[in-house]
Amino acid sequence: MILLELFLSFVQIGLFSFGGGYAALPLIQQQVVDNHAWLSMTEFTNLITISQMTPGPIAINSATFVGIKIAGIPGAVVATLGCVLPSCIIVTIIAKLYLKYRNMAMLQGILHSLRPAVVALIGSAGISVLQSAFWGTGAISLSQINWVMVVIFALCLIPLLKTKVNPVWVMLGAGVVNLLVKLVMKAG
Amino acid sequence: MENKRKLLLKLFISTFYLSAFTFGGGYVIITLMNKKFVDELHWIDKDEMLDLTAIAQSAPGPIAVNGAIVVGYKLAGLVGALVASLATVLPPFIIISVISAFYSAFRDNFIIASLLEGMQAGVGAVIAAVVWQMASGIVKGKDKFSDVIMVLAFLAACVFQVNVVVIILICGCIGVIRTKWDHRPEGGKKG
């Protein structure tokens, strides 16, 4: 039954992620972390990191990653299929209608209203990621905060907002800085 | 028949290649598809590709997969759509399968664990920057309605823990009503 659950979860992710890129994040988080606890928030954040550094849509990457972890290769196949199935059906229907009528006003109207909501939802998912980075699995309070992570976060924001640097380099830099800090603390 | 098989094979190879070597998400892959299928192969004309791109971006699901489906469907019908989407999904599927094996073997290693921990703050910053840029884009759009939707959706998700799907469905319905209103026969004013 786990295969069916994986399939249905990723059908929902494929069906309701509008706008590409990070739009799938809040849905993946809801299904995989909040509803089913297939991944911890830390594992989910690592998954986003891995997705950033490898080709392919984050929804497909997640489907493969979660599927393998929960039910091996069959799990990965089922989850990936679930993730792609809504696209296959919906896009084919729209393409068919479009090639016939050539009118996209309604679809783009819907997307226009969805876009601000999608931005808000990605923001909300981003807050969960930061909570996990700053506090790990511990309680959220000022005394428990991991200040090294806060400083790394702030340092990363500068090049990301001010320059056109590839985010992958910023993330790798963040990892290296944390490693150096850990090594120094270990030695000291 | 021979021609169709050749076309499908070429479609498979092209989309597989694009998917395997494109970093940076759906929008990038769509641009590269444009280059490949419009400029290089001349399989699709420019205006039509623009509309196909619009479909890929407005439909739910990963944009790279949607793009492959529209292009495949346009070139070879349903079979084309299936071939192109399979070719797009396979590279990330294979790569992540390999990484998964390494991930469970290496995540407890001190160096890997420290790198991954630091990258959590990095990826948090990447998401924060993307949201900041997207949200400023919405605010600069000078559509008060969009601003209100953005704030309400954020409160609903972050403070009141409303189901993400519910929020998307509600905003989709608002979109339907708004579009109908803007296109009503008496010639309503634009939103």
Question: What string, H for helix and E for strand, traces the elements of chain A in order?
Answer: HHHHHHH
Total number of strands of chain A: 0
Mean pLDDT, all residues of chain B: 88
Task: Report the total helices of chain B.
Answer: 7
Q: What ranges of chain B have pLDDT less than 50 throughout 5 or more consecutive residues?
A: none
Number of helices of chain A: 7
**Envelope shape of chain A:** globular
Oligomer state of the chains in this structure:
heterodimer
Q: What order do the helices and strands of chain B follow? A: HHHHHHH
Structural class of the helix and strand makeup of chain A? mainly alpha
**Percent range for helical residues of chain A?**
over 70%
- What is the overall shape of chain B? flat
Q: Work out the helicity level of chain B.
A: over 70%
The fraction of residues in strands of chain B falls at: under 5%
- Give the tally of structural domains of chain A: 2
Structural class of chain B: mainly alpha
| Strand residue percentage of chain A | under 5%
State the major sheet of chain B.
none
Looking at this protein, list some descriptive labels.
heterodimer, A: 188 residues, 7 helices, 80% helix, 0% strand, B: 191 residues, mainly alpha
Explain what this protein looks like in three dimensions.
The complex is a heterodimer of chains A (188) and B (191). Chain A has 188 residues and is an all-alpha fold. Chain A folds into two domains: 2-136, no CATH class; 146-188. Helix content of chain A is 80%, strand content 0%. Chain A has seven helices and no strands. Chain A has helices spanning 2-16, 25-35, 41-53, 58-101, 105-135, 147-162, 167-187. Chain A is globular and about 70 Å long. Chain A starts with a helix and ends with a helix. The mean pLDDT of chain A is 90. Chain B has a domain at 1-106. Chain B has helices spanning 2-21, 26-40, 46-58, 63-106, 110-140, 144-159, 164-182. The longest helix of chain B is centred in the middle third of the chain and has 44 residues, at 63-106. The N and C termini of chain B lie far apart (50 Å). Chain B has 191 residues and is an all-alpha fold. Chain B has seven helices and no strands. Classes of the chains: A mainly alpha (188), B mainly alpha (191). Chains A and B meet through helix 1, helix 2, helix 3, helix 4 and helix 5 of A and helix 1, helix 3, helix 4, helix 5 and helix 6 of B.
